[in-house]
Design goal:
With 495 residues, this protein is α+β, with helices and mostly antiparallel strands. It has 15 helices and ten strands. The relative contact order is 0.12.
Length: 495
Amino acid sequence: MESGDPSSTSRRSLRARNSSVASGTATPAGSESPRSDISDGRASRSSRLNNPEFAAKHKAFMAKVTAASKGSMDSYLSTEMATEETATTGVKRRASPRGEETVKRRRSTKTNSSGLDILSDGYCWTCHKEGDVICCETCPRVFHLKCIQLESSPAEDWVCPECCLIMTAENMDTRSRAMRLLTVDQLCTLLKHALARMKSVLNIEPFLKPVDPVQFPAYKDYISCPMDMQSMERNIRRKQYGSTEAMLADCKWILHNCIIFNSPSSKLTSIAKSIVKVCKHEMQEVENCPDCYLNAHIKKDTWFTEACRFPHPLVWAKLKGFPFWPGKIMRVNSENNADIRFFGAHDRAWIPLKDVYLFSDKPPQEMKKKRGNLESCVSEVEAHIKKLKDRFGKFDYADHKTQYDPAKEEEMLKILFPKYTLPFEIGTLARRARSYSFTGSERSRDATPTPSETSMLDEDEEEEEDENPIDWTNTDETNDINKTEETNDNDKTEE
């Protein structure tokens, strides 16, 4: 750690001792989502504070992002860099380091759009180190210029990449396909399952509840936005997450805070990394198909045969060393590989598109010898097709050896489901990419974790009474949800 850190003994023992704190522990200020002031009644779905002045700023900012990048964070950053190179005035304020002090402390106090004083973080969100940083106008995060690939300070009202991702994900015009299918209530139901999965991480106990500010008074001198499982659960109940990115951004605070207070090499930091890794994967699975994700948790025996509201194209796909096998397409990546979930053992693998064909009555190549589980696989395919017919009226087999083309997704769906009507125009609208960070370094794994059996913490009785039950059987195309996700964690491997 850099010079000026608190003693390693007290910092490294913080989380370990915190695990034994009683349930009545006081919660440090700032445990809730740091984006509680970002709101626009039209453009954002989460229940955050409304403010006309900030709503206008948000609207102007989103117009700029949409025009410059159509939702692409990389393009937006490139545009910002080009703009700032020609700018000669309007330098963004920086939080100056206190080089003379022997103890690191949080940076500056600022006033948010609601008139409340909040403290900016003292450590770069990307590298978790001190230095000359710039502050986001809508959250406590700060960044080194080099860490966000900027050569000069941006102008006033600068919004960090993390907030930009959240705003884009929650904006009605730029949100993902999965978010268009979900109401906030339905999303929060899925996030509860994801949180239960996160709680199954080994040795997570130190991160279940907030750090006790009485037992560790120095904690608030280094941590600007405390975060833990209990605080995230409360944010879910209060519907503060309007997208998967919003929940993931809060989860990252756990890792950021742990690195600052316990050092990057701490065993607690390794646990925090595991929590974030699981959260990223769970959020990607929600983005892949919210219907699948829910069904895997509530219909564990039949989830794979359920018909999702946005149907998955049925295909024949061939993994090297295996014959063509029936499966569903979950998504296609930029390398022209399809994420296939196979019938039978429910394995999954990335398959090159050249080896993926729409489902016909016969496979593209005849099997030289029958596999032992072929009969059960065929039975499962037939059960799935029956449910597809019940839901969409008709299912047609494709012509033999019709190669799948993701650029013609709507046409592919019409071949298999001639009576199906899209709930919205898909056009260039795609599922959210694997990366949730503008660095592009955060990717989900191929396998889906088995849904956790861990139960959620008991909710406050009063809040339970206030919440309205969610109607998952609503027939409205944009509001109903037809649940589903995976219970098998095995990847299909090469023979």
